[in-house]
Amino acid sequence: MSSQESEELARTPDSPGPAAPGPPGPVDVEQAEAALVEHYPRLVRIAYLVLPPSLGRNRRVLTAHALVQRSLPRRRASGAGAGAVPGARRADEDAVDPGYAFVRGEVLRQALVAGLPLRRRALPRRAQFPPLLPTVWGLRVFPRAGGADELALDQRLSALSGPARAAYVLRGLERQGDPEVLRVLGAAGVADPKGALAEADGVEAQYVLLESPEFDPCSLQARPTDLMRRRQHGRAALVAAVAVAVCGALLGLPGDGWGRNGAAAPSYARNPAAEAALDPGGLKRVGTADWRISTRTDFSVWPVRGGLAEDRALLRRALAVWARPGPAVRASATPGTPPGPPMGSPQLLFAGEVDANRVVIFHDGLRVVRYAEPVGDASGVALDFARTDGADAVGSAALVVSRAGGNVRYLTAPWVREAAVRDLLLPGKAPRVLTRDAAGVTEPIPSPVTAASCTRWSALQLRDGSGTRLLTDLGELAPARLTAGPPDRPADVTGAAALGQWARIACRLPALSSHGVRTVNSWAYATQRLPEGAGRAEWWCARAETWRGTGSRSLALFGAPGATGPAAPAARSEGTPACGPKDPRVLAGVVWQARSGQWYVLAAGSKDFASLTLSGGVKAREEGPLLAVKAAAGSRADLTGTLDDGRRVGALR
User: Fold this and answer.
1) What is the pLDDT of residues 477-528, one digit of tens each?
2) Residues 6+ positions from 48 with CB-CB distance below 8 Å
3) Partner of 50 for a Cys bridge, out of 92, 111, 153, 263, CB 3.0 to 4.6 A?
4) d(C-alpha 181, C-alpha 641), whole Å
């Protein structure tokens, strides 16, 4: 890490250290189990990095845990032949820990086997099957997203063979020299250790990134599985169970069978209201000029647009798929959005052909629903849901109408007078005006959420009768509005100061994508003079508010003086009011290294903090909202602040 970069106060556990030469002694089950429990997070990280990325992040996480958990020796004790891999030398020990060496060797061997392709004539091995335990039902789990550097490293590692990935991990994570790497690979069953080591040389040595949360399968995020498919399977199972129960009950009942159910129709009866919602003739259509005289300015006054607005066959297919999506439909929904059938006849916003797809967009007061089918192909149908209740004139200014080839097109509101694209990373560059067709669809612009690296960030700039707004694509139907300023007084991003601020923050927006984000506000809450005359650092807080109201996220960011790249993340929090309109204050800290090599703990809070206190590995107290104290490398500390009214508040983590 350079002297101008920061790192989070919360560090990963210490590694077992570099390996010592020589094979381990006999390994007992209790000894191996103790090593596995002590170094479990690190062993799982090794397995996750060596496993092939083609497994997918969810299966890769579960397989990594399964491999480590079944790496204990089968017998009471094993000689050097059973665990003939170099042991790991702890920083505070002189002897090799044969338990850790044995378990690590087993983890490597199984991870390499798991990456082998299944062959017809070869008997499959246990590591090649999906793990029985641990098992997660109804959720997909995956590590927290890192930055562009971690993503680039993961892509480069995915191009390597399994043995080459193992060699890179042993070098970088276990800090082993080449002779020890060759010995470990040979003991793990690699046929050509030297070739694996030579292949690993082709990847740039960014070993510090291996400690990133991007590669930590013990600190996970959870998302739902395919809810529509799961619901269909659940309904099918429920219908089958009900049918069996009904048949059994009818066979056992005398006389006329079931009793009365009051005024309810039989379960197989056709519902007129539900059928009316699927009739293209019942769709609500708003006139072209209705928004000019309406007291509301939102999706409810969008006029019908698009060249296929009168294609009843297309509209009927779209409504039918919305009500009953088949197993081949790719369905998605932002968090908190119910993906159920229409609640009455919806409003038609758009129907037209865009980028070789027929696209239909509906609005039912709570949700915007996008249906897309390829032209001339019945397969590949997509159905997207996004919650948009409570949208105002800015929140309903644009919708994503198409994604193709890494680009995105927007459908703009009728009150938008001008659309342009601005690169957030170049605040001094003037925006480029976007052309729009008669339906209000823009020309394609690069989507930042699909880019492999953060070299530019294309944001949509819209001008209406009351001002200029800045929106960005975060992978959802409704783009998120960007603002700047104190949480209780956010303003649109128009001035040079706000644009310069977003130039340092934009590359951190992927941490907020696919989360149902409505707005993201950035706030420069503190400026701090650094020790040793290193200049003045900036502290920012970026807070994302969601359409559903809950699940807001706050990011504390540290900007070193003279740097031009993305600001360094200092802390992240979800579901807290900090840095928001209900609690407009924030406190965060980082560990920073000066050019002299001396480490410092830096902390900054908003102006209503009277004092800051460090405890734990570093103890200090400073009056006011800023703190800078010397610390040893690798120090960890707890940061708290005292407000002007005497209340104590913890820092974001």
Assistant:
1) 999 999 999 999 999 999 999 999 999 999 999 988 878 999 999 999 999 9
2) 60, 61, 64, 143, 215, 217
3) 111
4) 47
Q: Is 562 left (phi over 0), alpha (psi -120 to 50) or beta?
A: left
User: Contact at 8 Å (CB) between 634 and 552?
Assistant: no
Phi, psi of 592 (to 5 degrees): -130, 140
The position carrying tokens 């849901």 is 385
Q: What is the DSSP string of 240-301?
A: HHHHHHHHHHHHH--TT-S---TTPPPTTSPPHHHHHHT-GGG-B---TTHHHH-S--SGGG
* Distance, CA of 268 to CA of 249 (rounded, Å): 17
The type of residue at 267 is S
pTM of the model: 0.61
The contacts of residue 61 (CB under 8 Å, 6+ apart) are: 48, 141, 142, 143, 217, 220
Direct distance between the N- and C-terminal alpha carbons of the chain, in angstroms, rounded to an integer: 21
Phi, psi of 240 (to 5 degrees): -65, -45
Reduce the DSSP state of residue 204 to 3 states and report it: coil
The enclosing H or E element of 165 equals helix 162-172
CA 35 to chain centre: 32
| CA distance linking residue 22 with residue 232, whole number of Å | 57
- Cα–Cα distance between 615 and 626 in angstroms, integer? 16
H or E element at residue 363? strand 357-363
**Beta strands per DSSP E along 413-535:** 418-423, 432-433, 445-446, 458-463, 468-472, 480-484, 491-492, 517-529
